[in-house]
Amino acid sequence: MSTIKLRQIEEDPSRKDVFGVLNEYIQPETATSASQAATSFTQTVKSPDEEFFWGFWDNIFDIAGQIPHDNPAQDKLVAFVRELTLVPETGDKVWDARVWIDLPLFGAAAREHLDRVAGTDAQVSFHAFVARLLHAGISPGSETTAIWMLRDALEQEAHSAGNKDANHDDLMAAAVYIEYAGATLVQKLALQPEPELDDADQRVLKGGKLWEGKSGLTVDRWRFWGQRFGEQAKNATSEQAKNLALHAAKLIEFWTQTRLSA
């Protein structure tokens, strides 16, 4: 694995500590463990507040967006976030969430970042990072984001011919959720083929125009996604998007046969 060259997005003095720690930690030649990196960083932070966590998560997402989706440094960044949850409780709370155990503001910051990253070069890498967090059991709420991205890419009519880049980006962003969190999603399906959703979740997790089935993560919707990945791969605007979509379709087919067949 080659050296990762990160650029600091914002010259904010309050955020340089985490950038420096991570810039060293994610390199392939480093001897620093995830636990050491997390401890080293948190020891420099005194009584973090809401403003701190908005900036902190922005920095984490900015860094994730600079790492290719299939680079092992993504896994190292996920391991760092996981280790933050194991840091001894400080007694501090932000938004009624324990520092660092509950990862305050993570969900809110991730949702805000969705719009900011859409259509940029960082989109696929950001979603690969969120998918890995979901698979690692760190951010169960990321399942909602996964369904949103799969809905946008697979359950809507294709974008206009003049907006092919949007097709390309959305398809790849959806595919990485299958690539890096598909095993977790299918495990949930195997345990609960038909989710019980309240009215709010029904609305949030509803399908796009091409999906007429139930809201949420269901076996029928899972199969539909697999079919649509295969169809969309034929119209992919790049070889990378085509390969990711085809691989996602094959994974869904394989897991359906091995994990969901009666």
Element pattern in H and E: HHHHEEHHHHHHH
Uncertain segments are: none
Binned, the helix content reads 55-70%
Total of helices: 11
Looking across the biggest beta sheet, what order are the strands in? Answer: 1-2
Strand fraction: under 5%
Q: Taking all residues together, what is the mean pLDDT?
A: 91
**Euclidean distance between termini CA atoms:** 42 Å
Radius of gyration over all CA atoms, rounded: 19 Å
Q: What is the total tally of β strands?
A: 2
Which sheet architecture does the biggest sheet show? 2 strands, antiparallel
Please state the structural category.
mainly alpha
Can you tell me the number of structural domains? 2
Q: Quaternary arrangement of the chains shown?
A: single chain
Shape: globular
Can you describe what's shown?
By secondary structure, this protein is an all-alpha fold. The protein has helices at residues 16-25, 34-42, 50-66, 73-84, 106-117, 123-135, 142-154, 164-191, 199-204, 219-234, 239-260; strands at residues 93-94, 97-98. The chain has 2 domains: 12-140; 141-262, no CATH class. 60% of the residues lie in helices and 2% in strands. Strands 1-2 form a two-stranded antiparallel ribbon. Helix 3 (50-66) crosses helix 5, helix 4 crosses helix 6 and helix 7 (142-154) crosses helix 8 (164-191). The longest helix has 28 residues, at 164-191. The model has no long low-confidence stretch (mean pLDDT 91).
